[in-house]
Design a protein that fits this description.
393 residues, alpha+beta, seven-stranded mixed beta sheet, globular
Length: 393
């Protein structure tokens, strides 16, 4: 039985990825973390099942000295028990929404459970000022016979629902396809000189960036696709944090279980490959008006976001980004989406359906340059997410 602190520490050392003898300075720093910990928290973490995040491991928030530098205790635990190559001085980790500890810098204790954190990865967004407009390769033809989906965020013909392309104009989506007539107040501060549109439009089309969530309305919607076929309904979430997973227990209140979605046309090979989704990913909105995404699976995922790079403005090589397992990235920025809309309007590039408030995530395969799949429609399993700005009125 692991009833003593010494026995618990010995068990954790055996589970250590860095190894107890690889770095004496790191070993000393970790022992300092153990001394600050409650034995109950150490035991709960040590006995957690593999693949489960487990409860919080509360430790005094004071920094620990390591080779003359002061290091946060959670960084030390993340390096020892999860990422041996983590650079303690230059890299950062992001606390996940499943963590129940206080996140403020003034808190006396912090959580040191390494599976309550994600390794921060930064995708530098492409410039909106110096980019040159790229001609779209998928312009829709005028006429009522085009079969397109209003749920397609990036202008590709996808599935059912014959819609007249006359419903769309050079200024964006028409009122017949918009979710709401109300807009979002746009602040010109920090907008690189782009002139904002009015808070509300008296007439004319309402763009996706003006799609707002009233009280009780969903914060986001998700669509699950297998190749070119959407499986299941468009799912709405009233919570700002969502966990998309294949099976097992969801770690957040807002959840989409892909394993429960049936498709009679799915092959046995595809079903086996679909199991690789595992714990899937988490997506949540921050106080800074951004959306973070954490890859909780064991496989790399591929993401495409208009606020990182827009296909109407930037090269194809910049569009799709790889997100390794265990990594966290800012996948969407509301303010930048409003700025992007202004740029597209000023250059008259909104000539076909395009949603600046939507992102795509391929769960097990990449697409585009460097991959054998030219479009995400060729990927076996992917998610399309539509965000809603909060109503400022």
């Amino acid at each position: 039985m692991l009833t003593t602190r010494k026995g618990l520490v010995k068990k954790l050392w055996k589970a250590s990825l860095a190894g107890p003898t690889d770095d004496e300075a790191l070993s000393t720093a970790l022992r300092c973390v153990f001394r600050r910990s409650d034995i109950k928290d150490i035991k709960s973490y040590a006995l957690a099942k593999d693949g489960e995040p487990g409860p919080c491991w509360s430790v005094s928030s004071q920094d620990v000295e390591l080779l003359g530098a002061m290091v946060r205790p959670q960084l030390i635990c993340c390096k020892v028990f999860r990422w041996p190559d983590l650079d303690l001085l230059s890299e950062t980790v992001v606390r996940l929404p499943i963590c129940g500890s206080e996140s403020s810098s003034s808190s006396e204790n912090v959580c040191c459970n390494p599976y309550h954190f994600g390794r921060r990865l930064v995708f530098a967004p492409a410039s909106l000022d110096k980019c040159e407009a790229q001609p779209s390769t998928k312009l829709l033809k005028t006429g009522a016979s085009e079969s397109i989906s209003c749920d397609s965020a990036f202008g590709e013909a996808t599935c059912s629902g014959s819609i007249s392309c006359d419903q769309f104009s050079s200024t964006g989506f028409s009122t017949s396809c918009s979710e709401s007539e109300s807009g979002v107040e746009f602040s010109s501060e920090g907008s690189s000189g782009y002139t904002p549109h009015p808070h509300r439009t008296a007439d004319g089309p309402v763009s996706p960036a003006r799609r707002t969530a009233q009280r009780g309305d969903p914060c986001l919607k998700m669509a699950y696709w297998e190749g070119r076929e959407r499986v299941g309904r468009l799912k709405s979430f009233a919570t700002s944090a969502v966990h998309v997973h294949y099976d097992g227990r969801a770690d957040l209140a807002g959840a989409l279980c892909i394993g429960s979605l049936k498709n009679r046309c799915r092959s046995a090979v595809a079903e086996k490959k679909r199991q690789q989704i595992g714990k899937g990913f988490m997506m949540w909105r921050t106080a800074e008006n951004t959306v973070m995404m954490y890859n909780a699976s064991q496989q790399s995922m591929y993401v495409q976001s208009p606020t990182i790079a827009c296909q109407l403005l930037h090269n194809a090589d910049d569009l799709n980004k790889k997100l390794p397992a265990g990594s966290v990235v800012e996948i969407f920025n509301y303010e930048r989406a409003f700025q992007l809309e202004e740029v597209l309007r000023s250059r008259q590039l909104l000539t076909h359906p395009f949603d600046v408030m939507a992102v795509r995530v391929s769960l097990v395969a990449g697409w585009g340059p460097g991959h054998r799949r030219p479009t995400i429609m060729e990927c076996p399993f992917w998610i399309e997410t539509f965000f809603f700005a909060e109503d400022s009125s």
